[in-house]
Every structure is written in structure tokens, then in C-alpha cells.
Write a structure and sequence with these properties.
Structural class: alpha+beta
Oligomer: single chain
Largest sheet: 3 strands, antiparallel
Order of helices and strands: HEHHEEEEHEHHEEHHHH
Radius of gyration: 26 Å
Helix content: 40-55%
CATH class of the largest domain: Mainly Alpha
CATH architecture of the largest domain: Orthogonal Bundle
Strand content: 5-15%
CATH topology of the largest domain: Arc Repressor Mutant, subunit A
Distance between the termini: 104 Å
Number of strands: 8
């Protein structure tokens, strides 16, 4: 009589048939309790998904990870770094200038706005508002200072850059409110009130291109 295969070997054969399984599916197929299946998985090595509330399991050698340590299979995400919060911590910590929610969602191929808010409230991440959106930064003071500097440099507007439609609108609002403001003062007001970085030279060129008359500032 052929002796029964060890449960870890049976488990490996299941993953050979299909890359991803839920814990309850494995328990039912193997005929073991959930706690026993977890023990078998630990023995052979596994990753748990950071998507779908971590309900999917795959063997440690199954995912094809990218340079960020992320792998996806049929919409299910796995990470070398573990859970979604732990993965976000890692990605933000290794980014020179921090990451926005949209940049993180693109990397993860998964929405993460709610988790980012939770991590920020818990003090695990810092954030900086630039150009109308938050950039999430490491909480570690040594990393945080460097990331803030790099983020500010990256967001510094180019004098040759054309104004976006939104920025042009707020420039005109500030000009209409106080026509005597200089281009530098308008830029400062837009930055202060709307959190949009804009160069005074770009505002001046916008006025010239659209033949807008500028009232000269009153002499001191």
C-alpha cells in the first residue's frame, strides 16, 4: 500500500496546479484545520497578498518581483516587504523625494489613499503639500530632511514653463483683486493661497502673450 504523501508535499502540488489559493480553500482541499495549513505554509515558505485584505497565498518562489519588490498575478498583488502598510513604508523610505498617492497607486497597481491617511495619522509617515497635492515622506528625521529638500527642488517651477489653465486662473484672480501687485507678488500670493508653485517670469510671459496690461506697482 502506497503511504500517503506528507501534507507539505500535497500543498506544493496544489500550488503547482494553481499559483494562488485562499487559506480556506487549502484547508478544505487538504482536509486539515486552518491552523495546521498555516504551519505547513510556514514550513515551505509563502507570500501573502497585500491586496484583497491579504486573503491570497502563493509560494515564496512563485512571484516575479520587479525592482520595487512587487509582483502581480491576475490582479493579485504580492510584495517582498509584506503587508500593504509595510510595503508603502518601504517605497516611501527609499524614494529620494517621497511619493504622492497617485505615484504609489501606480506602483502598487492598487488604491492606497485610505492607508496613507492612516499611516500619516499614526505618525508612520510625514507629508508635505506641494502644488496642490500631498507628497508622503519618511518619518525618520534623517531621511525626512533630505526628502523635503529634494521634493522642494523637484517642484521648483521653471521660468520657461507655460502656466497651466488652473494656475493661469488663480494668477488672474490675484491680479484682478489687486492690479498693482508685481509679478513676484502675484507668484507669492498664488503659492500662499493656492499652494501652487509658479515663477514670476512665467506670469510675465503669460501677460505678454495675451496682451494683458499690467499696472505698475506704486512707488515707495
Amino acid at each position: 500500500m502506497t503511504p500517503p504523501r506528507p501534507p507539505t508535499q500535497r500543498l506544493g502540488r496544489l500550488f503547482h496546479r494553481r499559483k494562488c489559493w485562499r487559506l480556506d480553500q487549502l484547508a478544505q482541499t487538504l482536509g486539515y484545520a486552518l491552523i495546521s495549513v498555516r504551519r505547513f505554509l510556514k514550513q515551505i515558505g509563502y507570500f501573502r497578498s497585500f491586496t484583497d485584505n491579504g486573503k491570497w497565498y502563493t509560494l515564496h518562489d512563485s512571484p516575479d518581483f520587479d525592482r520595487d519588490g512587487l509582483g502581480h498575478y491576475r490582479g493579485i498583488g504580492f510584495s517582498k516587504h509584506g503587508s500593504l502598510p509595510a510595503t508603502i513604508d518601504h517605497l516611501v523610505g527609499r524614494s529620494p523625494a517621497g511619493l504622492s498617492a497617485s505615484e504609489l497607486s501606480q506602483k502598487l497597481q492598487h488604491p492606497c489613499h485610505a492607508v496613507l491617511s492612516q499611516l500619516h495619522k499614526a505618525g508612520r509617515l510625514d507629508r508635505l503639500r506641494l502644488c496642490g497635492q500631498f507628497r508622503y515622506l519618511a518619518a525618520d528625521p534623517r531621511l525626512n530632511g533630505r526628502q523635503r529638500e529634494q521634493a522642494a527642488l523637484a517642484q521648483t517651477p521653471s521660468p520657461t514653463a507655460a502656466l497651466s489653465t488652473q494656475t493661469a486662473l488663480w494668477v488672474l484672480v490675484e491680479h484682478i483683486k489687486e492690479p498693482a501687485l508685481s509679478f513676484e507678488q502675484i507668484a507669492a500670493r498664488v503659492q500662499e493661497h493656492r499652494h501652487l508653485a509658479v515663477a514670476a517670469e512665467a506670469i510675465q510671459r503669460f501677460f505678454q502673450e495675451h496682451a494683458l496690461k499690467k499696472t505698475s506697482p506704486a512707488p515707495n
